[in-house]
Amino acid sequence: xxxxxxxxxxxxxxxxxxxxxxxxxxxxxxxxxxxxxxxxxxxxxxxxxxxxxxxxxxxxxxxxxxxxxxxxxxxxxxxxxxxxxxxxxxxxxxxxxxxxxxxxxxxxxxxxxxxxxxxxxxxxxxxxxxxxxxxxxxxxxxxxxxxxxxxxxxxxxxxxxxxxxxxxxxxxxxxxxxxxxxxxxxxxxxxxxxxxxxxxxxxxxxxxxxxxxxxxxxxxxxxxxxxxxxxxxxxxxxxxxxxxxxxxxxxxxxxxxxxxxxxxxxxxxxxxxxxxxxxxxxxxxxxxxxxxxxxxxxxxxxxxxxxxxxxxxxxxxxxxxxxxxxxxxxxxxxxxxxxxxxxxx
Length: 345
Hints:
Elements: E1 9-14, E2 23-28, E3 36-46, H1 48-54, E4 71-78, E5 90-93, E6 96-98, H2 104-107, E7 118-119, E8 131-135, E9 140-141, H3 157-167, E10 175-179, H4 185-195, E11 198-203, H5 209-215, E12 219-222, H6 226-230, E13 236-241, H7 249-254, E14 256-264, H8 276-279, E15 285-288, H9 294-307, E16 313-317, H10 321-329, E17 336-340
Parallel strand pairs: 10-11, 10-13, 11-12, 13-14, 14-15, 16-17
Antiparallel strand pairs: 1-2, 3-4, 3-8, 3-17, 4-5, 5-9, 6-7
């Protein structure tokens, strides 16, 4: 495929101020950098982080704001120093769109922890658009086995719950608990089960038991019953919290086996209340992590292709992004939403 002419604008769905509805507008693009690629967006997932940025909950939003960081599309242009990719190739892009490439974290393979990294929707145009740009190494080739119209959520939600399995060397014999069966949790259950772990799903919704087990959970526990939780003390090697709400952390820490870890990937805004003696006797840990680097993304996609893992998605048109965001904010999404691009370039 021949490269398209490098454009200077993208047609995007953007908010002009915090909480404002999205509307179609042309957004100016900086010149394509030597190490960048341009991607024609085919589809883009919606994440709760998009809602947080639209409402400026984190104090980092700049307007007009173009959300979208679960992007799948085809490369239309390559910078002069972009390597390993080709025009027409289908790739995905997640939360991070560039990193410095020379700090200790970048050189050590933890580019997602680079202090100079650039987020795809912070201070720049995201994926609710006809085109988006990123540093070439963050444009990750999509395996042919994966559906491009459903794969977008893997680049944020999927990577967020896959990365801890790799980072902490979780054994396939481990007992893993997953708190929450939603956008993150339904993927975490699939990853942990295919990893070989014994998986227990924790949910406040009893009607999700059958679905949790269909995703690979071996056991289902009501997270609202203190007696049930108490009966599971010292059982788990890893508990992943995928929800963005305050929980009885003391009770969950009691469920960890010695040297067990409570790992938080849900964006809880309130401080965690954890006592030293929740941790010290069993040498337990509390941790959190953001997405993952390019290599972890490649591994995650290969794992999905090999084991048939995919997000459960509902589809909207990109021009109908406001309705899709309202559907997500209502809590009715099951479990991720993907916008199919219908904007003319």
